[in-house]
């Protein structure tokens, strides 16, 4: 469980490393997601992604641009973020 929490935190840090563009920022989030899945495996990597999404949904600034909340998950980049969960489920 500690490793899941650590990788959720790693995904948050990777989200803050970005190349700004007008609409969508290119971040290292994808690297964090695939690193979690590669190291933890499908089941625990997916749990780590769920923790990351839950932190963002309650308003913690874990998404790119130090943003958080349900508005981000339902906004322009929300589908991309939900795709992380789909990736984990497919990998599992």
Tally of strands: 2
Mean pLDDT: 88
Unreliable stretches, pLDDT < 50, 5 or more residues?
none
Widest β-sheet, arrangement of strands:
1-2
Number of helices: 4
Main β-sheet: number of strands, strand sense, barrel status? 2 strands, antiparallel
Fraction in beta strands: under 5%
**Residues in helix, %:** 55-70%
Oligomer: single chain
The N- and C-terminal alpha carbons lie at a distance of 17 Å
Q: What are the secondary-structure elements, in order, as H or E?
A: HEEHHH
**CA-atom Rg in angstroms:** 12 Å
Coarse structural class: mainly alpha
Q: Tell me, what's the shape? A: globular
Structure write-up:
There is one protein chain. The chain is globular. 28% of the residues are buried. The chain has helices at residues 2-16, 29-57, 70-73, 78-91, and strands at residues 18-19, 26-27. A hairpin with a 6-residue loop joins strand 1 and strand 2. The protein is mainly α. The mean pLDDT is 88. Strands 1-2 form a two-stranded antiparallel sheet. The chain has four helices and two strands; from the N terminus they run αββααα. The longest helix has 29 residues, at 29-57.
């Amino acid at each position: 469980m500690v490793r899941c929490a650590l990788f959720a935190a790693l995904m948050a840090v990777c989200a803050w490393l970005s190349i700004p563009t007008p609409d969508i920022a290119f971040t290292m989030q994808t690297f964090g997601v695939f690193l979690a899945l590669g190291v933890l495996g499908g089941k625990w990597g997916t749990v780590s992604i769920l923790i990351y999404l839950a932190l963002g949904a309650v308003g913690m600034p874990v998404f790119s641009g130090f943003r958080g909340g349900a508005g981000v998950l339902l906004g322009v980049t929300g589908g991309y973020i939900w795709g992380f969960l789909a990736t984990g489920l497919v990998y599992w």
